[in-house]
Design brief:
The chain is about 35% helix and about 20% strand. It has about 270 residues and is α+β, with helices and mostly antiparallel strands. The strands form three sheets. The chain has a five-stranded antiparallel β-sheet with strand order 1-2-3-5-4, with helices on both faces. It has a three-stranded antiparallel β-sheet with strand order 6-8-9. A hairpin with a 2-residue loop joins β8 and β9. It starts with 11 loop residues before the first helix and ends in a 6-residue tail after the last helix. The relative contact order is 0.11.
């Protein structure tokens, strides 16, 4: 996690680099959501609002800026447009169209769920172009959480997946759900995004059956091999148990309990 810096505390050289792309900045304010970028601010400019997000150029997580920039042209219409990016004066910064919205609600009965299903349906058809990129494939991300590292290959694919479906990453604005924060964009099978999402639904009050039914509204999840989903559930249990052990918090404890419940429900169809 990175400490969020207030706009007034940034060096003048950084502000000059940003204003060279936006025009004069009238005001700026740090946002409260999110924890991974020291620069995350809404900027008031003469041409409207811009959301700027950045990390020091030598930060160990600076690759996430590259992932967001690489994902941006693929997700026009479901994510804010990338307006500029640069790496200068010791900072790597992405500037996005500002979407004035609120975080999604995942509780049972929320109308936002239908909007997220629609959003995920569009996303499921997006492929990552062949060739090198700043991606960390899902089989690499998940290989330490499966019993046999070779099992992680069943998640591998070329679909662009978001993987981090916390409500704060979904903005609801004028009847549409917008997906933000592509730091963990990952090549994978498209059914894995609904699978990541259903854990978030369970953590906010849905039963396993309810969450599974919502995920199954996405065709990719509906036809996914049940054994593969069981392996994925087991891997998520191991991942969240590790997070809860190493970085304990009420949120991590809830997610770990949720992942254990889902994995247990899927044990009967596992290959193990």
């Amino acid at each position: 996690m990175a400490k969020r810096i207030q706009w007034a505390d940034f060096p003048g050289s950084l502000i000059e680099s940003i204003s060279a792309r936006t025009g004069p900045i009238i005001a700026g304010r740090a946002v409260t959501d999110g924890q991974n970028s020291p620069l995350a601010a809404v900027l008031e400019t003469r041409n409207g609002r811009v959301f700027a997000k950045g990390l020091p150029s030598d930060h160990r997580m600076v690759i996430t800026q590259a992932r967001e920039a690489a994902a941006a042209p693929l997700v026009k219409g479901i994510s804010p447009e990338l307006l500029f990016w640069f790496d200068e004066n010791g900072w790597k910064v992405n500037g996005f169209e500002h979407i004035d919205g609120r975080s999604a609600h995942y509780q049972p009965g929320s109308p936002d769920i239908d909007l997220v299903v629609d959003l995920m349906g569009v996303l499921s058809a997006i492929e990552i172009p062949a060739g090198p990129g700043p991606w960390k494939p899902i089989e690499t991300r998940m290989r330490t959480y499966v019993d046999d590292p070779a099992d992680a290959k069943i998640f591998a694919g070329s679909a662009l997946t978001h993987t981090d479906w916390v409500p704060d990453n979904i903005l609801i604005s004028q009847g549409q759900a917008w997906l933000i924060d592509w730091a963990w964009a990952t090549p994978a099978q498209s059914w894995t995004d609904p699978a990541f999402w259903l854990l978030r639904l369970m953590a906010r009050g849905h039963s396993i059956a309810q969450a599974e039914a919502i995920a199954a509204r996405l065709p990719a999840y509906a036809v996914a091999d049940p054994e593969h989903v069981a392996v994925f559930a087991h891997a998520n249990m191991n991942m969240w148990n590790e997070i809860d052990r190493d970085h304990p918090s009420p949120w991590a404890t809830t997610m770990a309990a949720t992942a254990r419940a889902w994995s247990e429900s899927r044990r009967g169809v596992s290959r193990r």
